[in-house]
Amino acid sequence: MSTAVVVGSGPNGLAAAIVLAQAGVDVTVLEAHDSIGGGTRTEELTLPGVLHDVCSAAHPTGLASPFFRALPLAEHGLEWLWPEIDAVHPLDDGRGAALYRDLDRTVEGLGVDGDRWRHVFGPLVEHKEALVDELFGPIVHVPAHPLVMARFGVNALLPATVFARRFQDPQTRALFAGMSDHAVQPLTRPTTAALGLMFGTFSHGWGWPVAKGGSISITRAMASLLEKLGGRIETGHRVTELPQADLVMLDTSPDQALRLAGDRAPWHVRRSLRKWRYGPGTFKVDFAVAEGVPWTNEKAHHAGTVHLGGEIEQVNAAEQAIAKGRMPERPFVIVCQQHLADPSRSNGDVHPIWAYAHVPHGYEGDATEAVIAQIERFAPGFRDRILAQAVRGPQAWHDYNANYVGGDIAGGANDPWQVVMRPRMSPDPYRVADGVYLCSASTPPGGGVHGMSGFQAAVRAVRSL
Questions:
Q1: Cβ distance 331 to 357 under 8 Å?
Q2: How confident is the model at residue 149 (pLDDT cuts 50, 70, 90)?
């Protein structure tokens, strides 16, 4: 029987392990922490009984993932829950566009821009399965659905600021900007429209659900399935040299993969991975809040995700500053209210509020006040409702998870080149050396809880046997 070792127990590592175990390979997963999960852990970070997702929160790519949908994760305890509204982007005047799972309801709420929104997303949602098949693998490939990919790709290559001009109302442009800014790049750069198009399609196609009981439930379900297939997981095992096995799957950053693979990797692979660039950092604050957030915008009270940054020009200005290494006074902030879909996260009327700001790579300052001020901007009185808080800046993120270099939780900068060539120009970008594969968020299709990086890498690893 062939053997495999998977380094890292995040969703991609576990996905790789499941694929290998399904193929009859003897699999062991090694995790440096005392608990499994990578970016899908859930803990009581503030007060007893208040459950906070440590990293990932809402899951726009969760049900969009063909791999996740093909697994019997519900039989292993995973239950998806949806808020009434996927996302809202409030403005200073109290208005704010809402992204509903229902395309018709979204269109109705967008007024003058409703027909344009339908014209953009209707065809993409109609062909969502084909689109996902194209997007959730290496960019360098022959499209199986060329017409669908062409319709998406022509617009996806645009800067978000250019694409958003087709909308008349500032609140619609801001809604698209908020989705696009998950790229953590200035919205004037090419390809930034891609995430806005993708997240909008995923919303209307599957929604932005949360996992009941916390994101850790995704990990536990995958681990339970892996163990049923005969796989093993060892925690508290930090890997410092390449394990001995027929296959080694690395759910790690490229720099860690280089250290482990060493001279086993061909020179051109080593050269490409050395050039890999990491993106801006994340400064996260978890709040325990009495009675929730007092939003000025009524729809925000029902939204699982709230994007805070004002109009598209303000969002872009904040990202421009970060790209130059400066901390903006008003950073783009993402707030998640998972308790609206999953009340089990709360303790009575004390609710967990998940928030993070985009900050420069390796930022060493304290952005706590900037995060609170940005929430207060759209929810006056929020500060008075805070009962406890927990803070994690870029260095703390790196200490927590070595994959989060400089606080970059996306596995690398989403600039135009790295979006296309992730992490190198190759039809098989996962292969590092003979029998060694990189399967982290630094490989296609990139960040998010979908398991597709692990799936794609493991499929290729199995073929090599």
A1: yes
A2: confident
pLDDT at 138: 78
pLDDT score, position 417? 84
pLDDT in tens, 77-98: 999 999 999 999 999 999 999 9
Bridge-based pairing state of the strands 436-438 and 431-433 = antiparallel
**What is the secondary structure of 303-363 as a DSSP string?**
EEEEEES-SHHHHHHHHHHHHTT---SS--EEEE-GGGT-GGGSBTTEEEEEEEEEE-TT-
φ/ψ (deg, to 5) at 114: -60, -50
Q: How far apart are CA 273 and CA 282, in angstroms?
A: 23
DSSP bridge pairs for 357: 283, 333
Judged by DSSP in three states, 285 sits in strand
How many degrees, rounded to 5, is the angle at CA 284 between CA 257 and CA 387? Answer: 145
Average pLDDT over residues 304-319: 98
How far is Cα 228 from Cα 50, in angstroms, rounded to an integer?
A: 31
Q: Cis peptide before 423, with omega less than 30 degrees from 0?
A: yes
Among 62, 311, 356, smallest CA distance to 178 is for 311
For residue 418, is pLDDT > 90?
no
d(CA 193, CA 179): 9
> Residue 143 pLDDT more than 70?
no
* 142 CB-contact burial (10 Å; exposed 0-12 / middle 13-18 / buried 19+): exposed
3-state secondary structure of 250: strand
Could you give the maximum distance between any two Cα atoms of the chain, in Å?
A: 65
Q: Locate tokens 């709230």: which residue?
A: 306
Residue 445 token pair: 């299709």
Query: Between 461 and 422, whose confidence is greater?
Result: 461
Instruction: Give strand pairing partners of 97.
Output: 89
Kindly write down the DSSP assignment for every residue of 53-89, as one continuous string.
Answer: ESS--S-TTTTT-HHHHHS-GGGGT--EE--SEEEEE
Measured CA to CA, the distance from residue 123 to residue 181 in angstroms comes to 23
Q: Are 370 and 363 in contact (CB under 8 A)?
A: no
